[in-house]
Write a structure and sequence with these properties.
The chain is α+β, with helices and mostly antiparallel strands. It has five helices and three strands. β2 and β3 form a beta hairpin.
């Protein structure tokens, strides 16, 4: 049975995020990717496999080399998910700002009354 991973699992690991960043700039072979990390090639291959299963990387063979190409469309899922919470928190912060302005205005009125 093939494991289908989601994009959130892919970006949960800092090494995988860094791999995505590398190959988003240019297509790279596995050795070139591995050279950027203080980890075994086997460890990097596991990360590449997970990224492939999530649809963020496509591996293309050219001769004997395997090149990794970024396919970043699945990150739209993350963007959409984050956006809903961004809107929620922006609304909350706006409400807090409004409350602070109201409290500040009320405080000035109270101070003015106490001086008379």
């Amino acid at each position: 049975m093939e494991t289908r991973r989601d994009v959130f699992q892919a970006i949960s690991d800092p090494t995988r995020r860094e791999i995505i960043g590398l190959i988003a700039k240019k297509t790279m072979n596995l050795n070139s990717i591995a050279e950027n990390f203080n980890a075994s090639r086997q460890s990097i291959s596991v990360h590449i496999k997970i990224l492939t299963e999530c649809g963020l990387i496509v591996i293309k063979k050219q001769g004997r080399e395997r090149y990794c190409e970024a396919k970043l469309q699945p990150l739209n899922q993350v963007s959409s998910w984050v956006e809903q919470y961004k809107k929620f928190w922006e609304g909350r912060f706006s409400a807090i700002d409004d409350l602070l302005v109201e409290l500040k205005a009320g405080s000035k009125k109270t101070k003015g009354k106490n001086k008379h």
